[in-house]
């Protein structure tokens, strides 16, 4: 029974991680990050998908149109 609880805990932890981890489209050249639905992100050729926290750590700023 203890094993089941541990497994359940891992699953819940994993799910919450997916919900709270925000992925943004980061442009390393301009240092601006967009949300995944932003038009600028869709046409961006140099952009990479990274965690929002990672984008901010790299000195990224939120896009003025989509808010990051
Ligand atoms: Zn944007």
Written account of the structure:
The protein is of the alpha+beta class. The protein has a domain at 22-68. 44% of the residues lie in helices and 21% in strands. It is built from 3 helices and 4 strands. The chain has helices at residues 2-20, 39-43, 52-57, and strands at residues 23-27, 32-34, 48-51, 61-62. Strands 3-1-2-4 form a 4-stranded mixed sheet. Strand 1 and strand 2 (32-34) form a beta hairpin. The model has no long low-confidence stretch (mean pLDDT 89). The structure holds zinc ion.
Summarize this, please?
The chain has 68 residues and is of the alpha+beta class. It has helices spanning 2-20, 39-43, 52-57, and strands at 23-27, 32-34, 48-51, 61-62.
Question: What structural keywords apply?
Answer:
68 residues, alpha+beta, four-stranded mixed β-sheet, 21% strand, binds zinc ion
Which structural class is indicated by helix and strand composition? alpha+beta
Oligomer: single chain
Cα shape? elongated
Radius of gyration, in angstroms, nearest whole number: 16 Å
Q: Give the neighbour order of strands across the main sheet.
A: 3-1-2-4
Beta-strand content: 15-25%
Q: Report mean pLDDT, rounded to a whole number.
A: 89
The DSSP helix count reads 3
Percentage of residues in helical conformation: 40-55%
Question: Which sheet architecture does the biggest sheet show?
Answer: 4 strands, mixed
Unreliable parts: none
Distance between the termini: 43 Å
How many beta strands in the DSSP annotation? Answer: 4
Order of helices and strands: HEEHEHE
What ligand molecules are bound, each kind once?
A: zinc ion
């Amino acid at each position: 029974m203890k094993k089941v609880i541990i497994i359940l805990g891992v699953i819940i932890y994993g799910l919450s991680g997916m919900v709270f981890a925000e992925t943004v489209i980061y442009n390393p050249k301009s240092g601006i990050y967009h949300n995944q639905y932003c038009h600028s992100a869709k046409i961006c050729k140099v952009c990479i998908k990274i965690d929002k926290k990672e984008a901010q750590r790299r000195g990224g700023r939120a896009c003025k149109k989509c808010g990051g």
